[in-house]
Amino acid sequence: MADSIIVGGGPAGLSAAICLARYNRRVLVFDTGHGRSTHHQVNRNYLGFPGGIATVELRELATRQLSDYPAAQVLRHAVTGAEGDAERGFTVHTQSQEFRARTLILATGVLDHFPHFPGWERYVGESMFWCIACDGYENRGREILVVGHTDAAAAEAMQMHSLSDRVRLLTNSHRNEISEVLCRRLRAAGIPVLHDQIHTVEGDKGQLRTVVTRGGERLSLDALFSIQGATPETRLAAQLGVLLAPSGYIQVDTEQKTSVEAVYAAGDVTSLHSHQVSAAVHEGSQAASAANYFLYPPELKSA
Ligand SMILES: Cc1cc2nc3c(=O)[nH]c(=O)nc-3n(C[C@H](O)[C@H](O)[C@H](O)COP(=O)(O)OP(=O)(O)OC[C@H]3O[C@@H](n4cnc5c(N)ncnc54)[C@H](O)[C@@H]3O)c2cc1C
Known about the structure:
alpha/beta; FAD/NAD(P)-binding domain; 2 domains; seven-stranded mixed sheet; five-stranded parallel sheet; elongated; binds flavin-adenine dinucleotide
């Protein structure tokens, strides 16, 4: 029986693992290597890295840092199921084996709904982005295509307009759900809205040059900001009976406790507002502290 099983080896899971390892806990981290932190982006807003650091490199550094602790192990397996409770402990299932632990940290991230066209993954983090705080600054003054059919996309286009006056919005959906208020604001700001869908793109080495729509428009661009939403990876949480917020993300308190005792959640899968590496690292370490406290024998607890 391990002290803690962490599902997800992105910034949140690795941060939790390092903190728990430093409390001398036996930790198993499961990771399939397909998350927000596995694309091509460079993080320029994470403290301590002049010029930025590729998220993939940050993961590699953290994994190396974790390897200093023999009681922590990273396993490249997908966790397909989870069950148990605080009294009996938890069991997680992979395709071939079961593993047990007294506490569980869910750091499973989200699945982003980027536009899909042949080779789309090559562009993510290079010239296809989703968050203004992450990649807006580098794209100031450039030709921006915001993609999405909701008020969130319209709001992103308006915000991008503070960084560039060459912003366009493409709904990329058969629906256009942008409210009249936002339509008025887009018009007033001079942001063209095209209600059409992506057919194909032209570009090379990760740099988008042209989006060709089904209607035959050719839209030149330097960067695409996709505001098409994301689905939090909450399947294991649901199996454990963990409460989700109305947004569909895992409901946690400020210590990263979920509604199920000894189950914690950290990073982008939680309902907390900021989905950034800095927040994921903080939430991971917070979840580790809460799990470590749970693992203390009663005489070490304050009450
Ligand atoms: C293009 C782009 C640019 C970005 N730029 C920035 C930036 O500049 N600054 C910034 O702060 N943030 C940025 N972000 C956001 C940042 O990458 C995320 O906030 C961060 O990766 C969240 O970390 P996480 O550990 O919660 O989730 P993730 O990084 O998504 O990691 C989750 C991990 O869990 C694993 N996993 C999920 N389910 C299972 C399972 N059942 N079994 C085993 N493993 C599982 C996945 O394989 C994945 O490796 C960017 C994101 C994107 C996509």
